[in-house]
Amino acid sequence: MADETNKKKLVVLIEDEEILSNLLTQKLEKAGYQVKSAPDGEAGLKLILEAGPDLVLLDMLLPKLNGFGVLEKLAEQKLLPALPVIIISNSGQPIEIDRALGMGVRDYLIKVNFNPDEVMAKVNNVFNSEKSSGAQENASAQNQGEDGAKNILIVEDDVFMAGLLERKFKQGKFNILKVSSADQAREVMSSKPVDLILLDIVLPGTDGFAFLRELKASEKFKNIPVMITSNLGQQEEIDRGLAEGAVDYVVKAHSTPGEIVEKVENALK
User: Fold this and answer.
1) What's the pTM?
2) Which of 34, 70, 79, 246 has the smallest count of CB within 10 Å of its CB?
3) What are the structural domains, with CATH classification, of the chain?
4) How many CA atoms, within 13 angstroms, populate the side-chain half-sphere of residue 158?
């Protein structure tokens, strides 16, 4: 019987060996996961960007664009390490494994040494880990009830990242307000109450630092907690954000959506 808790999880499988792809698809679907597959790196990358999966199973030796090429594109889109990726490859060279893990990959399986049940165990472990890290946030939000849900304003111009955060926060029963610029944030805040702001730094128009200063100078908005979520991770930038009044500074490349939710939950206590 399929696990009811897995039914809404989407796995993208990028694998050019048709027999293996079909076998893994059957295993995943039997376990209750949704599966979308692609036979080459270019199609797989397009599928990831369009479908917004919860996990990716990625072969390394692929036509058109190899596994490292896919990982590099995902890194350019700032999707790693937030998006769980498990490598399935015929290549088991230590230098390649280290390189993949260094890019944010969650696990690395060598085809000659594994069976489909081991792949399933790895996939389940990723989701069980996320479920455990989010249990405390979910329980707290559920205790508040729907009417007591907190309004989180996400100011983020990376559509995929904003979508990942939105999905994770909704699991915790938060109300999500999502915009891609400071101008849009001003418009939302003029008409809706906001309990906390997640603020990117690199934005079209007014950048995050300038918008943060604006908020802290406003009598109406100065007490709203602002948490910076950015790919700018130099200590000078972190110190600047905190000095401008942010309650925390999260480097996106170093944090999962679940960890960001936990930080928000702590900030709202």
Assistant:
1) 0.50
2) 34
3) 4-132 (3.40.50.2300), 145-267 (3.40.50.2300)
4) 23
